[in-house]
Amino acid sequence: MAQKPLDVLHSSLESPVLVGLKGGKEYRGTLKGYDIHMNVVLQNADELKEGNAVRRLGLVIIRGDNVVFISP
User: Fold this and answer.
1) Contact between 15 and 58 (Cβ < 8 Å)
2) Domain limits of the chain?
3) Which whole-number Å values give the CA distances from 66 to 3, 7, 11, 13, 38, in the listed order?
4) How far is 19 from 42, CA to CA, in rounded Å?
5) Distance between CA 53 and CA 28 in Å, rounded?
6) Burial of 50 (0-12, 13-18, 19+ CB in 10 A)
7) CB burial class (10 A; 0-12, 13-18, 19+) of residue 2?
8) Global pTM?
9) Per residue in 24-43, pLDDT tens?
């Protein structure tokens, strides 16, 4: 049976994910939480540029309307 997007997010809790945003920014970190608006909370997050860590940020909250993709 096909999974719904929030089911995939739920199964990815406490796992590393890659989050792509409008404007091309990407963040990698451990998914700690989310809501129905696709707002996400990442722990131990890094900002990426061209696949390489640019900046270590720690705890990050990303507003859902900026999210283009979340990859488990």
Assistant:
1) no
2) 5-71
3) 23, 20, 22, 20, 9
4) 9
5) 9
6) exposed
7) exposed
8) 0.88
9) 999 999 999 999 999 999 99
Tokens for 17, please give them: 């994910």
Q: Return the CATH fold of 5-71.
A: SH3 type barrels. (2.30.30)
Taking the CA atoms of residue 12, residue 17, residue 21 and residue 26 in that order, the dihedral angle to the nearest 10 degrees is 180
CA–CA separation, 3 and 7 (whole Å): 6
Placement of tokens 């945003």 in the chain:
21
pLDDT band at 47 (very low <50, low <70, confident <90, very high): very high
What is the SS3 assignment for 17-71? EEEEEHHHCEEEEEEEEECCCCCEEEEEEEEEECCEEEEEEEEEEECHHHEEEEE
